[in-house]
Amino acid sequence: MVAQLFLSVVIVSVFATTDANTDIKVVCEQDSIRITWRINAELVPHAARFFLGSCLPSKFNVLPSGDGEAEFNYKLVNCKFKRLVKGKHLLYQNELTFRPNKRSKPAAFVYPIECAYKSPEGWVPTFLNPGSSFSEGRGRLVFHMELLNEELTSVAKTNVIPLGSFMPIWAAVEQKSHQPLLLFIEECVAATTPELQLDSQVYPIIGNKGCLLESVKANSVFLPRYHSSALVLFLQSFKFPLGNEVYIHCKLVAWDPDVLDETKKACHYVKEKLRWELLDDPSQSSICSCCDSTCTPRLKRAVKWESNGFSHNSVLGPLIVTEPSDSNVRDISEVQ
């Protein structure tokens, strides 16, 4: 206890006198990042508590002066970088942190990292056109919802999901000649049938106008967007209380990208920060504060709905969540 208190005092005094801009050097390369972080001598024994996102330093040197130098050389697909699309640019964001305590406690020091790149003309992942699996919603827009493989590079070839693994559920709307649209998943429930009835038993996954409820209970998240018209729900599989064979029912909403409010949002709970965070602009995360209560539309926004938005109900399944010992396998062709 005394040792922890002493360490905390040292940390506060060291970082209070540190000019982070001179001690941290960042170089953004084409698909990777190089960071050099000069560490005060008092913190060198705690080199294993410095992180870039989820990654430890790739190299740590003790300098002749007694100070340390942590080097982070990683691809942007590693270390849990967040990828955002803003205008014509791709942004990769992360944080340098010093965590003297367990990961569940706030970091003692946080320094934001960002690399910005110009998006290639017409760039979208290869699975944006998934063939015949589509449905037409209001306004004659074409909506998609698919289960992706683990690499997020194509549609999955199996509907069998090991318990505890992640199910990347991709949803998108084809904009075609329509004005730019922002896609949201307003609501998602799990059920045992491909059609919902008034008396159907359901398990909520997303509710309250775009709040990812499973991010509170498990490690599910919305992945950073690669395009405004698509969204990937990274859903951690669990033992559904409704049965092994599950259908995911979601309400997809295409909306004006310039209008975000309590009813048009994508929010997930960030356990490290103990708060809800808005996927598309964390600086506006106050929009997500209603996720713990009830998110109700403002009258003016509701009136504008007819001209600004389109919605569609999509179903994905059956999906089979199995224990590691199970060998029950079905082909993806059975997934509608």
Automatic annotation (TrEMBL):
It holds the Pfam family Zona_pellucida. One of its GO terms (biological process) is binding of sperm to zona pellucida. PROSITE patterns: ZP_2. GO terms for molecular function: acrosin binding. The keyword Signal applies. InterPro entries: ZP-C, ZP-C_dom, ZP_dom. The keyword Membrane does not apply. Keywords: Disulfide bond, Signal. This is ZP domain-containing protein. The lineage of its organism: Eukaryota, Metazoa, Chordata, Craniata, Vertebrata.
